[in-house]
Design a protein that fits this description.
Layout (H helix, E strand, L loop, with lengths): L1 H4 L12 E3 L6 E3 L26 H8 L9 H56 L33 H34 L1 E3 L15 E8 L19 E9 L6 E6 L4 E4 L2 E4 L5 E4 L2 E5 L11 H12 L5 E5 L1 H10 L3 E5 L3 E3 L4 E3 L2 E5 L1 H9 L9 H20 L1 H4 L2 H14 E4 L5 H11 L7 E5 L2 E3 L9 E3 L1 H12 L12 H9 L12 E6 L6 H12 L4 E7 L8 E4 L4 H11 L6 E3 L3 E2 L5 E7 L22 E3 L8
Parallel strand pairs: 3-16, 4-11, 6-17, 20-21, 20-25, 22-23
Antiparallel strand pairs: 1-2, 4-5, 5-6, 7-10, 8-9, 11-16, 12-15, 13-14, 17-26, 18-19, 22-25, 24-25
Helix pairs in contact: 2-3, 6-7, 6-10, 7-8
């Protein structure tokens, strides 16, 4: 069509130039951005230069029979000429109309084809997400502005705004930063893992802490003079004894914790210790009797697992994990948090530890912090017990600083802590990754410092020495302290059980008690030392007069604590046996009636792992014994 008149018919299909205008509902001819167009195209006028269409009309005229005239020959010829001219004109007009019809039909066909192609084009563009707006035609001067054409009822495709482009660009950049950051974080975690030194626990631990159980961590500070600037302290040739040892017990519900200091000069029995050697072989280091506790590490090649076994032998508590810190740990950890606050009740100038501080409150770190935890001659009685008090004050201050917002909200301090902690600590093989240490940290982080109690194993001066250099257990008090830790009893006032539950448990012990001779009981071993059930049977029959008792063998499963099960009608028998054994109300379990080997109703006593022997009371104390020194980590106490 018009393209042909412009000489561009070779590469343009006329039908492609017709586009539906959504505002008028009419098709418009689009020739490109440079071609002026009318708003609504009308019928095309024929041009004088157009060649005559092939004469369908001529053929029809030629094929018709010519009418013979009746006039003169000239008149006939003239008439024939006029008739021929008329018929020729009519043929031309018919041809013109036929050409116009063909043009209109071609235009309609072009419109339909264009509509189909346009729909296909838009559908494909929508699938590809790359639809482009049709460029608007040039507007004639004075003509109203036309909206961009498109399919009826659809909005024209909008161009991406500058804001969206920026968002896409920054989003891609952020994704790159996050990926790069994740890679850097991974490398840093690997670096921290490489910092961690670990040694085998040689089977001395429980196998590692668990999230749903009480946690017992053995913290060991050695006197080994490793690291820059530590050569001049004390015994430069020390192999690294257990100079400072704390058993940290965290309750099952994480509501409280107890940090039990074990004096280095306490006389204990160090058991035999299977130890993994550097070449991977196993060696049993013989134990020694009646020696200082600090020799459980370093002496004769003993490792931290030997100290762990010694603690278990001493307290009855088997640690889950251990951590060993050297002198550098005190320096680097205090510097990482920006120092800790301590208090002195008097001026101190100790040439042995190099501590020189005036009376009052001070913030210490680095070398000064190490001097603080090492001094002993200038405080208290000048011995190891006096130094333990300073160390507990220091650890309380460190705990407060670690839990403070000043530390937790500082990324740099947290990184410094991670670096210092992994470099300065040696851990057991169950804590040999930053992930495991993180999990332990999350559990310890649940603890409120006001319910963290520092105390020391109750001791007395060694009565066999004229010059008081060592100490021994104060058995009456120490037994209660160890029992509290084993039974997860807090040394501080924490949230108590619901009143109804506490009253129900206490009520089990109240009421009448049957005579010992009427108590019929089955005894099972549910985790106690082998032979315990038989020894308990002999004790009850011979010492307490419980003659209707029998050894029923091993329980189906091991129990941590001893239990006493009974039917409601046997409550008086159960109360009598609980009184004999020193059982608490929580150990009494009302249940169904069972029978003994003779088919008679009997109560069932199951000896758990807490059973220490016939005649030893099993009731855990609900508070620390009188005379036991204790302090909580939320308070600042001045050393004197």
């Amino acid at each position: 069509m018009d393209a042909q008149g412009r000489g561009r018919a070779d590469d343009i299909d006329p039908a492609d130039q017709w586009v539906l205008n959504p505002n008028t509902g009419e098709y418009e001819l689009r020739l490109g951005p440079s071609a002026p167009q009318s708003a609504v195209p009308g019928p095309r006028r024929p041009r004088s230069s157009d060649a005559a269409p092939p004469a369908r009309g001529r053929k029809e005229a030629a094929g018709r029979p010519r009418r013979e005239g009746t006039g003169r020959e000239g008149s006939g010829r003239e008439g024939s000429g006029r008739e021929a001219a008329r018929r020729e004109g009519a043929g031309r007009e018919g041809a013109r109309r036929e050409g116009a019809g063909r043009e209109n039909r071609s235009r309609e066909t072009g419109r339909r084809d264009a509509q189909g192609r346009e729909a296909a084009r838009r559908e494909g563009a929508a699938r590809e997400g790359a639809g482009r707006a049709v460029p608007p035609p040039r507007r004639r001067r004075g003509a109203p502005e036309e909206p961009p054409p498109g399919r009826r009822g659809r909005r024209p495709v909008k161009k991406s705004s500058k804001g969206k482009k920026i968002l896409l660009w920054t989003g891609g950049t952020m994704a790159f930063v996050l990926v790069a950051g994740a890679g850097a974080a991974y490398l840093y975690v690997q670096h921290l893992n490489d910092n961690i030194a670990s040694v085998s626990d040689d089977g001395a631990s429980t196998g590692g802490f668990e999230k749903d159980k009480a946690i017992n961590i053995l913290l060991i500070g050695t006197d080994k003079r490793t690291g820059k600037g530590n050569e001049s302290y004390g015994d430069a040739g020390s192999v690294g004894h257990a100079d400072t040892t704390i058993l940290l017990h965290v309750s099952k519900d994480r509501s409280n914790a107890t940090a039990l200091s074990i004096p280095r000069d306490l006389i204990v029995d160090v058991p035999d210790c299977p130890t993994t050697q550097d070449d991977g072989s196993q060696k049993v280091i013989p134990g020694t009797q009646r020696v200082r506790f600090n020799t459980s590490l370093g002496q004769d090649g003993r490792t931290p697992s030997c100290t762990m076994r010694t603690v278990t032998e001493l307290t009855g508590v088997k640690p889950d994990n251990f951590m060993v810190a050297d002198f550098n740990a005190v320096k680097t950890l205090t510097s990482a948090v920006g120092g800790v606050e301590v208090c002195l009740g008097k001026d101190i100038d100790d040439p042995d530890s190099h501590l020189k501080l005036s009376k009052g409150t001070h913030t210490i770190e680095g070398e000064q912090a190490l001097a603080f935890v090492r001094t002993r001659h200038a405080v208290g009685f000048g011995g190891d017990l006096s130094r333990i008090g300073l160390q507990q004050q220091f650890l309380s201050a460190l705990m407060r600083k670690l839990k403070s917002n000043d530390t937790l909200t500082s990324p740099q301090k947290m990184l410094d802590l991670a670096e210092a902690g992994t470099e300065a600590l040696t851990v057991d093989s169950q804590l040999d990754s930053i992930g495991k240490l993180k999990d332990l940290g999350l559990e310890l982080g649940k603890l409120n410092v006001k319910n963290l109690t520092f105390t020391t194993v109750p001791v007395i001066d060694n009565p066999t020495e004229k010059v008081k250099a060592t100490v021994v257990l104060d058995d009456s008090k120490a037994t209660q302290v160890f029992n509290m830790i084993r039974n997860d009893v807090s040394f501080t006032a924490v949230k108590q059980k619901k009143k109804k539950e506490a009253a129900a448990v206490a009520a089990r012990l109240k009421g009448s008690k049957a005579p010992a001779s009427e108590v019929r009981v089955r005894i099972l071993n549910g985790g106690a030392v082998s032979g315990s059930a038989q020894k308990m049977l002999q004790y009850l029959q011979v010492e307490e007069g419980v003659t209707k008792s029998e050894n029923a063998g091993n329980a189906p499963e091991a129990l941590k604590k001893t239990t006493l099960e009974y039917a409601p009608e046997q409550a008086d028998q159960a109360r009598r046996l609980a009184a004999i054994m020193g059982l608490s109300g929580s150990a009494m379990k009302p249940g169904d009636s069972v029978t003994n080997s003779q088919g008679l109703p009997a109560i069932t006593l199951t000896l758990g792992k807490d059973f220490e022997g016939a005649g030893v009371p099993l009731t855990a104390p609900d508070k620390a014994p009188e005379g036991v020194d204790k302090s909580t980590a939320d308070k600042v106490e001045c050393a004197k």
